Amino acid sequence: QPQLVQSGGGVVKPGGSLRLSCTASGITLHSHDIVWFRQAPGKEREGVSCDRRADNSTYYADSVKGRFTASRDNAKNTVYLQMNSLTSEDTATYYCAAGESCSWLPVLFDIWGQGSQVTVSS
Fold it and tell me: Fewest CB atoms within 10 Å of the CB: 9, 55, 110, 118?
């Protein structure tokens, strides 16, 4: 049974940094495109970054470009999301997802992490 287990998250002050981890079992992450999504209360789930295996490219939502960095450690079967210069607008539950295409559409992904809460507050 494929499973993604997330760690990281927490409470941070504006301007601070956090790193999320997403470790896979039952699947090999380097065989999938990996998307980080987030969902704030009352809002739809939105894509944050997409790491495309075909050409090792990573795409970012405009709202996080230049502040967030997604990466992989294939030896650990783990992906990471480094988040810097955090603002209150980044407060959300963050999810990793593994799929067959680099897309911002959550419906296309059927392997999900359990979610990590990120709260940015002074």
Answer: 55
Closest CA to 73 of 65, 82, 64: 82
Q: How confident is the model at residue 30 (pLDDT cuts 50, 70, 90)?
A: confident
Over residues 3-13, the pLDDT tens digits come to 999 999 999 99
- C-beta separation of 46 from 39 below 8 A: yes
Amino acid found at 101: S
Residue whose entry in the numeric block shows the structure tokens 């405009």? 62
CB 3 within 8 A of CB 21: no
**Do 67 and 48 meet the contact criterion of CB atoms below 8 Å apart?**
no
